[in-house]
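Side project, low priority. Logging it here so it doesn't get lost.
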Amino acid sequence: MLKEILSVKDLAVKVEAPLVRGDGKFILNGVNLRVGAGETHAVMGLNGSGKSTLAQVIAGNPGYQFDGGKIMFDGKNILDLLPHERAKLGIFLSFQYPLEILGVNVASFLRMIYNKRFGENISPIKFRTLLEEKMKIIDMKSEFSERYLNEGFSGGEKKRMEILQMLILEPKLVILDEVDSGLDVDALRSVANGVNWLRRKNPETAFIVITHYARILNYIKPDHVHIMHGGKIVKSGGFEIAEKLEESGYGEFGTEESGGGAVN
């Protein structure tokens, strides 16, 4: 039996209503999810289904109100931990919309997080060799390492930068929040190359791939696929669920297009 790396049980989360203080809108309504070491899970759903909220809550985003349930990571209850404390334990979240951070050099930033992650003080020269090896995996030009973090990067370049951070950190749990959004085929393959490289190098690393579409799953084959709707996981199974979704849409699973909810 695989070691359980993540257990989400009866998770309920809400956001405060903007005009009614103390009131709130539930956006996760009893989510249950178990992820074993080395497993890849795909979480799919329409806008407003709660899938990106689930990612944010696992990573520790303080903008949500916990209202019940439990999140266990590698045998530890992490609900009271801050985002950076969860990151130190080995949880990595790639952002759906990565921010530009002016004045922060990419190579220096990545060297800093590498040293924090592994408790080292690797020299700039030695780190440069490691960094260039990782950049080649995702077809990223070395010149990007001298730029400021995401400044002037295209959407695909920002997503590659997220995957580069993942390759540098080699976390225990990787959550990819719609990393395929807006990518052309070449960029999608580069992102998948990075993910699949880490899967081969660290067979116990677990992945949660959050997406609307099955396209990325043709490159990153999941062990389990889950459909979210109304803040819950309403269907779980194997890759055949993604294939059925590609053929027939979400209507097959009792869901229908929402009115454009702001929360994913």
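Brief comment: The mean pLDDT is 89.
Revisit when time allows.
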